[in-house]
Fold this protein.
Amino acid sequence: MRTVISLVGLALTMSGAFATDVPPPSEPAGLREIADQISADELHATIAKLVGFGTRHTLSDTKSNARGIGAARRWVQSRFGAISKDCGGCLEIVTPAQTFTGKRIPEPAEVMDVVAIQRGTSDPNRVVVITGHLDSRVTDVMNAKSDAPGANDDGSGSATVIEAARVLSKRKFAATTVYGVLSGEEQGLYGGKVIADYAKQQGWQVESDLNNDIVGNTHGQDGVIDNTTVRVFSEGTKSGETLEQAKYRRYHGGEVDSPSRNVARFMADLADKYLTNFHVRMVYRTDRYGRGGDQVQFLEAGYPAVRVTEAHENYTRQHQDLRSENGIKYGDTIDGVDFTYLAQVARLNTLALASLAAAPAPPGDVDIDGAVSTDTTIHWQPVTGAAGYRVWWRDTTAPQWQQSRWVGDVNKVTLKDIVVDDAFFGVSAVAADGNASPIVFAGAAGSFVEAAKKAEQ
Ligand SMILES: [Zn+2]
């Protein structure tokens, strides 16, 4: 103990600015404990309960307490209620809803999400969201009667959301965390629209949505068994990019550095640091080829968002009538979920939510100067709660950030002998406890605050 004190004293004597000169710890306290608290048994109990409602088709019965989407929604609501009771009422539970008609909703139908809100202590308007969808389907997307267990699609995502709420509700975070169990996904991503609209009405500054859809199967249709990889899909350029921004980006770079992409990198880094035998395969796409998910509604609202999906999907278990044909068993039943694997996916999500919510906001207005110079200057707007900033760079062809420098509590730094032409640059805000924001790529292409700006205009 004496040694520690004298070291601190020395740093103060030498510089007079301890917080600036000594970087915060690289491993914030508490994250390993959060990962350890995720339980495969809890995830199993949730999916078993959801499967028990027979079908959770968006157009299924809403009155019964035993079968259909209504019963399932009310159970999720009561589960959030029980979790909230355990944390002294720390969750507000809301059920935003809208009525839609569409190609897959021939008669007007109410689509209702079940959402639990854990308010942030110092930065409550900044919001980190996790979502999964409660609704399920069989072969005919309009069939609201047949059994549609939806154990993996998307009982696995819904269970991940509820498990994150159970573990994180025991703690406090600077930013607000929102746990969304959505409906209407299979009918046309309606529940994603309901929660994104709700976020806008509330004036939330959504830092990211982590959308979990099909996250629990490890036996791929291609015969590959992979229980050590999860895919994180992210758009390369922002859905809301203006023509002017696109023109600038095409010339200067940024086509692989949307805020959503940098959330994916943030998650890949967390998996490598904190999880054993578990890695993120980043996919540089908004979603799987020709397919979609609720994260798209967040992106279209101007909010960063990623989609989390298992490494190898099994299509005999998705959107199928329960049946056996030529010795193949079809249908999305609970025996197709690998709970050890699902627990790893839940750990990754919960770590990401906790880190994002504990860290300061990503810095704003990050930009670079240095044309016709051997040095690069980076500047940004400071954010509250930051003990200082870490500047990052990488080769223009590298998928992950490679080099960094702690620069202390400043809003501008010049990197000597680093030529601006040859690297991509970004900045992360770091709290005193070491929790760091995602890295913000310089320029409009990388900014996290587009939606807030749009709302102001
Ligand atoms: Zn799905």
In short: The pocket of zinc ion is lined by residues 133, 153-154, 185, 213-214 (CB under 6 Å). The radius of gyration is 23 Å. The longest helix spans residues 339-358. Residues 1-19 have pLDDT under 50 and may be disordered.
